[in-house]
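Model it.
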Amino acid sequence: MKQDFGRVAVLMGGTSGEREVSLNSGKGVLAALKSQGIDAHAFDPASEPLDALKAFQRVFIALHGGYGENGAIQGALEIMGIPYTGPGVMASAIGMDKFRTKLIWQAAGLPIPEYALLDEHSAFDAVEKRLGLPLFVKPAREGSSIGVFMVTEPGGLKAAFESARQHGDLIMAEKGVMGGEYTVGILGDEALPIVKIEPATAFYDYEAKYLRDDTRYICPADLPPEKAAEIQAGAKKAFDALGATGWGRVDFLMDGDGRHYFLEANTAPGMTSHSLVPMSARRAGLSFEALCVKILAGARCG
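Modeled.
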């Protein structure tokens, strides 16, 4: 099976704000594939022409943010006819847009936190009153919690909006759901064990995700089995609603009354030492190396 993969490019780096995270993911994937005897090579589209990918038979996408997750690189690979890992063009583009993801999930009857789109003409005080405090302000097309701000004091929404808009032009305010942060990995047709995230910071921000060692991860999450099964089924439904295939991750929040709310999808999850899908896969009996091979085996084009 490994011999059938041919020459494999591991896409990493790129030009988004998540470049460093992507390099870490890519290096981990590259080492894992090589350890399994796969002819894998690093490929950074920030310094190499995409046309050079024609020398490869498969591509493992470890790019995060920007062109790595918004359907652009997927479209280029489709045109070149090269099988790649993860969801296709449409699902990647929608998954990178938190606003349009919410629209689809609302239409599918899935629970999501209450939210509002913001611009310079928004009635900030009215939005604060409707959503309540705390609330979160975030760019709709960024990942890794880049540009996310928590508002805890009355009158703080406008300043948070001004800060968030430095990271994008589509900005959302979202009701704070503070009963716990969780994620569900998706691998093929399977929802992996749920991970509960307990950051030492106010919320699961960039620092907690990638720089700190005091964030706690509980897998499987301490949820009743029936509730966990309900959420796993909902996460798979959420992933499918975007037209996503292959592998990914669906994040959700819990409130104090035990109700869950789906937050966002990640169509090119992190594969670093702190990453959540590898953690969940290990609980399901898959080593990091086996996970990387399985993801690569699911590469497709079209």
